[in-house]
Specification:
- The complex is a heterodimer of chains A (about 110) and B (about 120).
- With about 110 residues, chain A is an all-beta fold.
- Chain A contains no helices and 9 strands.
- In chain A, the strands form 2 sheets. In chain A, strands 1, 3, 4, 7, 8 and 9 form a 6-stranded mixed β-sheet that branches. A 3-stranded antiparallel β-sheet of chain A has the order 2-6-5, with no helix packed on it.
- In chain A, strand 5 and strand 6 form a beta hairpin.
- Chain B has about 120 residues and is mostly beta strands.
- Chain B contains no helices and 11 strands.
- Chain B is globular and about 40 Å long.
- The chains are: A mainly beta (about 110), B mainly beta (about 120).
- Chains A and B meet through strand 3, strand 7 and strand 8 of A and strand 5, strand 9 and strand 10 of B.
Chain lengths: ~110, ~120
C-alpha cells in the first residue's frame, strides 16, 4: 500500500514561516489534503487538492505538491497554530485512504 | 449546518462486539462517500473503512473480516459494526464525510472512544 512520510515534529517562532513536508512515491501525481488537529479535538481540513483552502481557513495556510514531496506552509505563525498536522491522499489500491504519520507543530 | 455526531463507544472486553453510530444532519449520507477513521491514544490517524454512495465498501487490512460499515438511509446514519475486538482496536473513532473527487474528508464528527480491555 501507499506510504506517506512526515517529520515527527517542526518548531517555529511566532511570526515566522512553518513548512511541513509529506513524502510519497510520485506524490506530485496525487491530490494531497492536509488536516489540523488540536488536542482533544477532531481533525479539521485546512488545505485540499494540494493548495486549495476551505472557507474559513486563513490565507496564511497554503500548500504545494511536486515530485515526491508535498508541503504545507503556514505563514506568520501564531500560537494558535500549534497542533498536529496530517497529510492524506486517495490511492487506487484496496486501501484507498492513506494518512501520513502526523507532524507536531510547536510554536516556540 | 453540516454536522456528524458519533455514539456507541465504551468499554468492551476482548472478543466482544460493539456498534458505532454516526448521525448526520445538513446533508444526505447516501449521496456521499463516508469513512471511519480511528486514533489510538497518543497515535496518529488510521483509516478504517469507507462506503461509497453506490454501496461499495472497503476496509483496512487490520479490520477486514471483523468490522462492517453500513448506513441506514431512512435515519441518515452511518454505522460501524465491530466484532472480535482486540486491545489494539482501542481508539477514538471518527466518522467523516467524503467530499469532491479526490478523497478529502470534511467535516469530521467529534469522535467516540472505544476501549477494549478486560
Amino acid at each position: 500500500s501507499y506510504v506517506l512520510t512526515q517529520p515527527p515534529s517542526v518548531s517555529v517562532a511566532p511570526g515566522q514561516t512553518a513548512r511541513i513536508t509529506c513524502g510519497g512515491n510520485n506524490i506530485g501525481s496525487k491530490s494531497v489534503h492536509w488536516y489540523q488537529q488540536k488536542p482533544g479535538q477532531a481533525p479539521v481540513l485546512v488545505v485540499y487538492d494540494d493548495s486549495d483552502r476551505p472557507s474559513g481557513i486563513p490565507e496564511r495556510f497554503s500548500g504545494s505538491n511536486s515530485g515526491n514531496t508535498a508541503t504545507l506552509t503556514i505563514s506568520r505563525v501564531e500560537a494558535g497554530d500549534e497542533a498536529d498536522y496530517y497529510c492524506q491522499v486517495w490511492d487506487s489500491s484496496s486501501e484507498p485512504v492513506v494518512f501520513g504519520g502526523g507532524t507536531k507543530l510547536t510554536v516556540l | 449546518e453540516v454536522q456528524l455526531v458519533e455514539s456507541g463507544g465504551g468499554l468492551i472486553q476482548p472478543g466482544g462486539s460493539l456498534r458505532l453510530s454516526c448521525a448526520a444532519s445538513g446533508f444526505t449520507v447516501s449521496s456521499n462517500y463516508m469513512s471511519w477513521v480511528r486514533q489510538a491514544p497518543g497515535k496518529g490517524l488510521e483509516w478504517v473503512s469507507v462506503i461509497y454512495s453506490g454501496g461499495s465498501t472497503y476496509y483496512a487490512d487490520s479490520v477486514k473480516g471483523r468490522f462492517t460499515i453500513s448506513r441506514d438511509n431512512s435515519k441518515n446514519t452511518l454505522y460501524l459494526q465491530m466484532n472480535s475486538l482486540r486491545a489494539e482496536d482501542t481508539a477514538v473513532y471518527y466518522c467523516a464525510r467524503g467530499s469532491g473527487l479526490t478523497g478529502r474528508f470534511d467535516p469530521w464528527g467529534q469522535g467516540t472512544l472505544v476501549t477494549v480491555s478486560s
